[in-house]
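Reference record
================
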Amino acid sequence: MTPDHLDMDPALERAISEIRDEAIPNEVVESAAARVWARLNEPVEHIRNCADFQALIPDFRAKRLPEARALLLQDHLHECVACRRVFEGKVIPLPVTPRVTGHAATAASRTRWAIAAGVVAAGGLVAWFTIVQFGGPSGRAVVQSINGTLYEVSDAGIRVMKAGEPLPQGVEIRTARDSSAMVALADGSHLEMRERSEFSTSQGGTDVTVHLDRGSIIVQAAKRHSGHLYVATADCRVAVTGTLFGVSAGVKGSRVSVVEGEVHVTQGNRESVLHPGDQVSTTPVLEPSSLQDDFSWSHNQGWLHQLAVLRDNLRQVRMPQARYSSKLVGLLPASTVFYASIPNLAEYLGEAQQVFRRRAEENSELRAWLSGPGAAVEPVLQKLRSANEYLGDEIAIFGTADHFGPVFMAEVKRDGFPEFLKKAGLPVVASEMRGDVVLFSPNHDALSVPLDGGFQHTPFYTRIMEAYSQGAGMLLCADLAHVPGPQPAPRGVQYLVAEQKEIGQHMETRAALAFDSARTGIASWLGEPSPMGALDYISPEAGFVMAFTMNNPGAIFDELPQTLPAQQSMDIRHEAAASLGGEFAFAVDGPVFPVPSWKIVAEVYDSARFEAAVEKAAAAFQFRTSHETVGSRTFYTLAGNPPNPLTEAHYTFASGYLIAAPTRALVTQALDVQTNGAGIVRSPAFLGLMPHDPYTNASALVYQNLGNTLAPLAGLLGPKAPTEMSNMKPFLIAAYREPDRIALASTGDLLGSSFTNFLSGSVFGLANNAVPWAQFLGTTHSPFSSR
């Protein structure tokens, strides 16, 4: 049978006819021929193994690698742990296979041409078969819609993208704060990007890889007849076909959640297969989150509907590891304004004494109560350590608005507790049994409180039960709006819920302030938990890091002293704030003396406008400015007059960030840290201090590891050195903004001073309390004082 007798599909026949009859301009043909000829004349080198990939790393770091090779290397680094460790400088690279020369090279060249001809012929047949059998590709990759602002990030800077634009392969795109975007890939897959998310794409054969650098995406993967869609983060790779799933990548690692279909997640040499309702995290500090929370940011109602259907069909089963409920809290009266819960274990009761003392530092209301009506709490706890055998698993302490004196309550599991109270010499004047529950108090009137369960119908009870739902250790909760105290609670503050429990063999402390109206201080401008690309420029050797996101970048200028006339200051503030993206990081990243090795990294959307604001400010303060272009990068200098190493700053702009430091060498080092993927977020010491919770990212982070830096100085000062210098332990505090609360978490116990500054509103005060700068410098004023 000849081709003339083949029965062809009418649609295919029309398409072939249109292609055959299309007139192609000569300039297009000549341009294509020139590109092909240039490629044919390029030296051909095969990449055969890991050694060949590792040989490309120096040129990649120096940005001398052609774009195609750079993409191949980047894709390989995501998949190959061994090469990634070489890239990070942890192992010595493999020896490179010698290149073929002379006659052998000629023979190899002829072989390559023969193989290439075969590949071209085979490729044509495959393309024809694919078009006839399955139809062509669905189209080009495009940006479908944008809610807010979407940027294209390249070495040339950042550029605002518009809906309908093609999605450039190998180029990173990033959503701004309060922004999202919907992207369609060429294979018909759709991606929704959350705010401050960033990814690029690459293609190898029929495989497409989405490289998620940071943030969150929801993917509706198209069904494919060949190849795969991959999503690669820094520590895992996700392989899918025809699936609805979400991926988040942040400081703590990556998390994958599946709504529909099957997903294969590869991490190192381990692979997990996920089905609808399943979820996996790449690090132990990144705890599971409900699928509702993982997808709640989406604007796509279709995906949210599918999630709702899945949620209704899944049976939620939770294996208790701590106290997930309480019989006692449900008995309390509606007037309860203070509640504490302690496990009935000797070691916990002993620790509870310290917890009460430290929590009293958080606000004046609790401090006043624990030094007045609640003064008996600590001595009673001390005596109760020997009463374990009489009481149930939990001991509760509560107070009401009418009778605020502390009332202790517990289930009784053995007779003889009243006699124990008498013999123990507790400062208790009254006790009584109500069913199987005993109440006792140092205040006789306090026992007149009814146990009618009215507390269950209050918002305060709802807050407390949220803490139980996450597994309770020691709880201390207060309705700050109604707790009697020397002064009213700060405006808008309603509830304090603090807890301490053991997670992963580490004691973690966390607390949350709930709000019922407008916020003040840091709580008013802190952004929601978001990726922090600024941390990529900070090295693991940094001794102090403070990073945060802001929903109003202009608020950072309110922290600074007002030294210019009001109108002039307002103009500069407006210009600078309008160019900022709302992400900031400050670090001490190197020697502290004689010149502190500070770094400032800030997200900048409009570098030209920001530079203009700097020039205005420099003129107002009579600072000198200059700039120098080295290669393709411009470095700027801002210096006091006369020159002084302590009043000089160097900075540049890269990938949508401003990077500033006291010397150009430090700026260059920060750029190298980011280019090599060696930022502090890859440091085991830093990640090891991360609190265990479902948050992928944080709203703010404060990290301190100055012990090694300051210890030599303490040795020089001898007995005159502050004790904190030689005995500083590393710590990390994470803050999370939610719609109605601010939460803090730490593997240390530093929440008292931190909460004070969240309420008073000083970000520099937060840094000052984290590290006693004034003591180190021998001054009475902190360098972070803002007034």
Observations:
- Residues 329-515 form one domain.
